[in-house]
């Protein structure tokens, strides 16, 4: 089955953090997060589970661009030329997190949760999710703002899709629909 983004929250998505934790435990792997538009809520969601300390290395909230550069090594020219919400910024966040954390699965999220801040090129709900795992990096661009969704819904969809990507990777599902990143 081909991997598909989640754009509507269904009841089965609410336990995805448990599923991912079980996959990580079974494979003796760890996870770390670097978040911007979700403000640390992915890390918080993971750590609501008993035993999270066995798989969770760290969570970094890098809301400001200078912190993305200082902590995660995002190139200033990437931020200047493409902005904080871009494919390359997200990939560099994931790579920087991988270096910082040493975790097996490193998830980066950057986007525009709204209700303000969108542009015609990057409307509210534009979210990039990056995954750096064991030397490989993928980034997927999402549009997570169907009519009527607010900031919290965009953030929730970003969290769910991030763990959906991790679960797909850990399950050995086809990742060819993820855009592989190559650093220049």
Task: Produce the secondary structure layout.
Elements: H1 16-27, E1 31-35, H2 41-46, E2 56-61, H3 65-72, H4 76-82, H5 87-101, E3 105-111, E4 126-133, E5 136-143, H6 151-170, E6 179-180
Parallel strand pairs: 1-2, 1-3
Antiparallel strand pairs: 3-4, 4-5, 5-6
Supply database-style keywords.
184 residues; alpha/beta; Maf protein; 6-stranded mixed sheet; 6 helices; globular
Going by CATH, the homologous superfamily would be CinA-like
CATH class: Alpha Beta
Radius of gyration based on Cα positions = 15 Å
- Within the CATH hierarchy, at the fold level, what is the topology? Maf protein
Unreliable segments (pLDDT under 50, ≥5 consecutive)? Answer: none
Distance between the termini: 32 Å
Class from secondary-structure proportions: alpha/beta
Give the H and E element order. Answer: HEHEHHHEEEHE
The count of strands amounts to 6
Shape: globular
Major β-sheet strand ordering? 2-1-3-4-5-6
CATH architecture: Alpha-Beta Complex
Our count of helices gives 6
The amount of beta strand, in percent, is 15-25%
**Number of domains in the coordinates?**
1
- Overall pLDDT confidence: 92
Largest sheet: 6 strands, mixed
Estimate percent helicity.
Answer: 25-40%
Pfam families: CinA
Organism: Candidatus Egerieicola faecale
Protein name: CinA family protein
InterPro entries: CinA-like_C (IPR036653), CinA_C (IPR008136)
């Amino acid at each position: 089955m081909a991997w598909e983004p989640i754009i509507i929250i269904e009841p089965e998505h609410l336990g995805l953090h448990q599923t991912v934790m079980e996959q990580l435990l079974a494979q003796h792997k760890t996870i770390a997060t670097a978040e911007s538009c979700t403000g640390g809520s992915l890390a918080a969601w993971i750590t609501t589970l008993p035993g999270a300390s066995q798989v969770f290395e760290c969570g970094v909230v890098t809301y400001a661009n200078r912190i993305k550069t200082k902590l995660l090594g995002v190139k200033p020219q990437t931020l200047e030329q493409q902005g904080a919400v871009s494919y390359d910024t997200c990939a560099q966040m994931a790579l920087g997190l991988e270096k910082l954390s040493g975790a097996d699965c490193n998830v980066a999220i950057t986007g525009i949760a709204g209700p303000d801040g969108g542009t015609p090129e990057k409307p509210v709900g534009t979210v990039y999710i990056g995954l750096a795992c064991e030397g490989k990096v993928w980034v997927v661009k999402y549009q997570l703002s169907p009519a009527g969704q607010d900031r919290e819904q965009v953030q929730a969809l970003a969290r769910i899709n991030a763990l959906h990507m991790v679960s797909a990777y850990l399950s050995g599902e086809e990742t060819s629909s993820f855009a592989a990143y190559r650093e220049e």
